[in-house]
Design goal:
Layout: H1 2-35, H2 51-60, H3 63-72, H4 81-120, H5 122-140, H6 150-169, H7 174-182, H8 186-219, H9 231-261, H10 266-283, H11 289-320, H12 325-356, H13 363-377, H14 387-395, H15 399-413, H16 419-453, H17 467-482, H18 531-542
Length: 572
């Protein structure tokens, strides 16, 4: 009996071992099938073998089941919520771009209009007041005061430049230039127009420097050491610049006039297609917020200049048709086409630039606040520049050549004869003054609101930058651009003697310190950093410690960037 029991136990143990071995083999077979790419979802191995598993595999590989799975399978977008939320925000940003961009463009347009009307309205009156002071002060005695204030000297120089350039422009025959350009082929005119656009930007970039050099040379304190060539050479350079720039804009307006008067409008179509080429040259480049601010200012200036060119074209055409109102409606569709293409190109360009560079649409409100700050700061008692010059530096818009050309075209197109005509001119001048004053009041109130919303009121009371600080800023930017490949350690010794920022001895990094990642200027471009942040930026970028150079701020905000400051830093 005991033998039979022991024999039964042994057989049961052997059977259990066989079952375990079969199960282990079945698991190994499943793993091998998965490695070979065969999907086995229902098959299993039992004591009788793997026949049932093979039948299940064949049924799973049927075409009907594959099609059924493709038609009924699902997925859940919430598993990647952050990605799809970001995509939706990009769409909303693109939809907001036209509204925010046009707000900035409208504000910038009225800024340019205010500067442009200043040349026709207040500048002549200021020149007359300065000349009266120049004539009356010597008779009354100087009394130790200046003969003319610096602002009055600049106004008189602007007035003399306008008078001399207008007398030189009177010798230029507009009709001969029109027929000379009209005789050229379409391709030549297209190339000429593109060359004129490039030349206009180059003239604007260098022209404001010439005018600023003249103003500073004429008003520089006499006790300082003379480091210039004299006022007269600077004045002659300024007159030559304004005259050449006015001629350049005249050729540009004449080319556009030829395009309007062509029979098949092919030239006008080609010139408008040139705007869409601008999209290709801008959208696929890397832009930071500072670069986008510079491009926005350039677009504002370009749009305002195009409006003045269209006004000149309409005046010339209306004069040729004896001021017939019917002819204006003939020109109206072409004018609308030019304006519409310009607006559409700007919207598409800015929408895709903000999309590709992950820039929020709120940045245009910050750009508006920066432009408003220029207007408000120019009304302060400690203002160190005229508002028109500030707009010129910021946007590259110089009103003198454009105003000179418009005066030349208006005087040649409109004939003034009789007392009634003079009364009409006087009323028109008073109307322009009224428009200038109202525009200035509205702009000033709107600008104060923008500055208050951006919390920039404290910067209005900051002192103007000194020569030492400006040189320190330029040195800091130069050294920063030179040494961006590797971070530097502070290079001042403990005694407080600072080493040369451009030359630093090699230093070993302490263990446990991570390498510093160079940051972009766009991180601190909107608001002026706090004092502690300024010290950190100063020590990290310049490698200086202590109070040796307090005025060095290597990073710029929007208030320190003008139209041509960062053109060389654009990344193609």
């Amino acid at each position: 009996m005991a033998d039979s029991l022991s024999t039964g136990l042994v057989e049961e143990k052997e059977n259990e071992k066989e079952d375990k071995e079969r199960a282990t083999k079945a698991v190994n077979v499943d793993l091998n099938k998965k490695k070979d790419g065969v999907a086995d979802t229902r098959g299993f191995h039992d004591k009788n073998g793997g026949a049932r598993g093979q039948k299940g595999n064949l049924s799973d590989l049927s075409l009907v089941r594959f099609i059924t799975t493709e038609l009924t399978r699902g997925y859940f977008l919430e598993h990647n919520e952050a990605k799809y939320t970001e995509r939706r925000e990009r769409v909303y940003t693109c939809l907001r771009i036209p509204k925010e961009l046009e707000k900035l463009m409208t504000f910038g347009f009225f800024l340019c209009l205010d500067t442009f009307l200043y040349v026709f309205t207040l500048l002549p009156l200021r020149v007359i007041l300065a000349l009266l002071r120049l004539l009356t002060v010597p008779c009354c005695g100087l009394g130790g005061s200046r003969l003319l204030q610096p602002a009055q000297v600049c106004d008189v120089l602007k007035g003399f430049i306008m008078v001399l350039c207008y007398s030189m422009m009177s010798y230029v025959d507009y009709s001969m230039m029109y027929h000379l350009i009209r005789g050229q082929s379409v391709i030549k005119l297209y190339i000429i127009y593109n060359m004129l656009e490039v030349a206009d930007r180059l003239f604007s970039s260098f022209g404001q420097d010439i005018l600023d050099a003249l103003y500073w040379t004429a008003t520089e304190p006499k006790e300082k050491k003379r480091a210039h060539i004299g006022v007269i050479p600077h004045f002659l350079m300024a007159v030559l610049y304004v005259f050449l720039h006015a001629i350049l804009i005249m050729v540009q307006a004449t080319t556009l006039n030829v395009a309007f008067n062509s029979h098949n409008k092919s030239l006008l179509t080609i010139m408008m297609s040139n705007n869409f080429v601008e999209i290709k040259g801008s959208v696929f480049k890397k832009f930071e917020k500072n670069n986008l601010f510079q491009m926005s200012n350039s677009d504002i200036k370009e749009r305002f200049t195009n409006y003045i060119l269209l006004l000149i074209v309409c005046l010339r055409n209306m004069e040729q048709f004896s001021w017939n109102p019917d002819h204006f409606w003939v020109l109206f569709p072409d004018v609308v086409m030019v304006i519409t293409s310009e607006v559409a190109v700007d919207v598409v360009k800015h929408a895709f630039i903000t999309k590709f560079n992950d820039i929020s649409a709120d940045v245009y409100g910050e750009y508006r606040a920066s432009l408003a700050f220029d207007l408000v700061s120019s009304r302060q008692k400690n203002a160190y520049t005229d508002y028109s010059d500030s707009v010129s530096r910021r946007m590259g818009f110089i009103p003198l050549p454009l105003a000179l050309l418009l005066i030349r075209v208006v005087t040649s197109s409109v004939k003034i004869q009789g007392s009634l005509s003079f009364m009409c001119v006087l009323l028109f001048y008073l109307g322009m003054i009224t428009l200038k004053v109202l525009n200035s009041i509205v702009l000033l109130g709107t600008s104060c609101m923008f500055v208050k919303e951006a919390k920039m009121e404290e910067k209005l009371f900051d002192p103007p930058p000194s020569v030492a600080s400006s040189r320190a800023n330029s040195r800091a930017n130069r050294s920063k651009n030179t040494y961006t490949a590797a971070p530097q350690e502070p290079t001042s010794d403990r005694a407080g003697v600072s080493l040369t920022p451009g030359v630093s001895p090699p230093t070993e990094k302490p263990e446990g310190t991570s390498s510093t990642i160079p940051k972009s200027d766009s991180d601190t471009f909107l608001t002026t950093p706090d004092e502690d942040d300024e010290d950190k930026i100063l020590n990290n970028d310049m490698g200086l410690e202590g109070d040796g150079l307090k005025h060095r701020t290597p990073k710029k905000d929007l208030l320190e960037i003008d139209r041509f400051t960062i053109c060389g830093n654009r990344i193609d």
